[in-house]
Amino acid sequence: MADAVRPRRWRPAPLIANPWLRHGLTLGAAIYLALALGTVDVNWARVVDGLDRGARFIGGFLQPNFSSRWDDIVQGMIESLTMTVTSTVVGIAISIPIGIGAARNIVPRPVYYVCRSIIAVSRSLQEIIVAIFLVAMVGFGPFAGFLTLSFATIGFLSKLLAEDIEDIDPASVEAIRATGSGWFSMLSYGVLPQVMPRLIGLSLYRLDINFRESAVVGIVGAGGIGATLNTAIDRYEFDSAAAILLLIIGIVMVSEYTSSIIRKRVQ
Amino acid sequence: MAVQQLANGRFAWQRRTARAEWLNWLAWLAGVALTVFCWRVMTESTIWDYVWDAPTQAADIGGRMVPPRWSYFPNILKPLWDTLNIATLGTLLAVFISVPIAFLAARNTTPSVAFVRPVAILVIVSSRSINAIIWALLLVSILGPGILAGIIAIALRSIGFIGKLLYEAIEEIDAKQVEAISATGASGPQTLAYAIVPQIMPAFAGITVFRWDINIRESTVLGLVGAGGIGLNLESSLNTLAWPQVTLILLVILGTVVISEWISARIRHAII
Amino acid sequence: MLRLEGLSKRYANGDRALDHIDLHVPAGQVVGLIGPSGAGKSTLIRCVNRLVEPSEGKIFLGDVELTALGRAGLRQARRRMGMIFQEYALVERLSVMENVLSGRLGYVGFWRAWFRRFPQADIDRAFAVLDRVSLMDHVDKRADELSGGQRQRVGIARALVQEPDILLVDEPTASLDPKTSRQIMRLIVEICAERNLAAIVNIHDVALAQMFVQRIVGLRAGRVVFDGPPESLDPAALTAIYGEEDWSKTMTREEEAEDRAHEAASEQLRGVRAPLIAEAL
Q1: Given an 8 Å threshold on Cβ–Cβ distance, is C120 in contact with A9?
Q2: ipTM above 0.90, yes or no
Q3: Pick the CATH number of C1-80+164-249 from 3.40.50.2300, 2.60.120.470, 3.40.50.300, 1.20.1640.10
Q4: Is C61 helix (H, G, I), strand (E, B) or coil?
Q5: Quick check: C127 and A13 CB within 8 A?
Q6: Into which CATH architecture does domain B72-271 fall?
Q7: CA–CA separation, A192 and A110 (whole Å)
Q8: Which domain holds residue A241?
Q9: Residue pLDDT, tens place only, A213-247
Q10: What average pLDDT does the segment C258-280 reach?
């Protein structure tokens, strides 16, 4: 073996074999990065002003002020929490039929397309944009937030539920069908038992998301803790803002922990 | 499930035992009661006349929104470019910060399970709990309006997302490959580079692209609170009640979201 | 070359995996380590390069007391011990060459390794061992594209490129078919002879061990209960290692062993097929 005697070079094989494409992509990425960074026009005077506020905000995290806005915070939290619960329940109730309707393997084609388009509409619209429109229609307050979150829940849950149903084991569905039962008993004995644990897990997850989103919709007037937060930030009351953020983080942590326990029990 | 033998010697079957049945009912009852209670509290201040009036309002707004004002399109090209940059640069920034955090948070790579790991997890949870728009609200107030606030807001929110999924991926790697590399006499950082990094690379790329796609979606609305991008135009159009303009902006946002979702799906598909 | 003195390992849960093992392996000798599952074979091998920390006793590699080494010293000592694993333990997503070069990690700095800029001498070594295990055609393939036997040969190459004094081999044939198993065992034994390498080979297949190694050590419940040449492994010795059983059928020669494996395989196939056929009818 001459090869083994003569020194042989070795370089790792590049990720993209074609050198033109490889160097082209690298160059393109570099140009893009330069252009993109160029669009970031920073007003340094303003940033320097902001440093002080930033320090106050970080200080606020270390010493949050719960007291001066306590009534607003309580009111906002009550709105957020009630909005979260009701919108999740209503969202689930609507998502189940739509999710079933959007599962290709158990419904006729026309139903499938209708349900899939409902999901697509709900998923492609941002919560905050929906909230803006709903506030314009039903007025300020948590009811608009409730509608927004219910609407968003439908897109999320139905899609995942439909995908779960499409993934179920066809053998057990067939076994139920073979007993001569109708569509509804097929659903309740063959399909739902298989997707139930996942559905419960997803619903808990969505409960969590709805709470986090409830803090957002308040910014455009749809009620909840977001409104309180918005006011606090507008008035540069960073210690109150930090208190609210800490509350949100705390509630999310508690709810994630609880739902992980419930999920373990269900599965 | 419970099977009981009845007095006549036959077997009766119930899905649950009597106790479980009761508990099940109680849980449902509590759930319904909670929902009704929340509903009552939430709707206390609702003015129902407005709500019943909503269809009329909707029809009114809908009527004003069509047709979209196509001539406005050139005005939103620059904001669209800004939006893209906010999402991309924000994702990049988040990647740089979240990778070390993920290694500190993963049980099998953290220097200390008792001290460092909880701190890293806390950072991840905090970042995940606060929506990008709220971070933007804060940053606009601190740094002033503009793209920079948007980029940092997107990054702050993405750290938790990327960090969480990445540390879970690190915890799931095959420990035997790590053992084999450290058995050759490799140092800790070398083992990381040769045994752990190759294993998490596909997950990492997938997570980043996925988050980039979500960030495009989120950065379209950051402008509503002043953090740059196409949302600024949406905000000003809404304020001046220029509904045909709003329609056009929404259509452009929709198109951007659909395209970025398609790109991200293609890339993730190619990686796996 | 390798000397164990009173080596013991007790796991945190109280399991005593090794109980005062004394063993001496001279250079160039291939030792087959046999014993029932849970006898401590794997723990013994892992204690030697301290992937598992021993609880008691001393280990010497040449003049170096491995059990007394600090972190840096251990790294250097590990370079002298090549390890070959049960399910290959290759880094699946790296190429064959990268896997082999990972055997040189103990000799190069971090950045050289990160950018794959190994010294030419290391690359020459890697090509030489790849040639020895006949994998020259697969240098830039990814490890997960290879067959089981090829992967194990990459594993061997990775251990050899370390230029070790001893090979620690953990069930090298457990996931291979009978023919490949024998090829791999033959390769390991030949290489040890060529390079005058000592080796400890964990192996559960007694017949295969008898075929290739020069010395057999039997472990049971963490103790050495047999130590001698393969020929002296009689039913009494097997009973001491594995417990009471009719051993007359185990003492087969090569051909029979292979026949048996064949039979077992086809039986398994029949077992799988039976319900399929029933369904077809």
Answers
A1: yes
A2: no
A3: 3.40.50.300
A4: strand
A5: no
A6: Orthogonal Bundle (1.10)
A7: 22
A8: 69-166+196-266
A9: 998 999 988 888 999 999 998 888 888 999 999 99
A10: 43
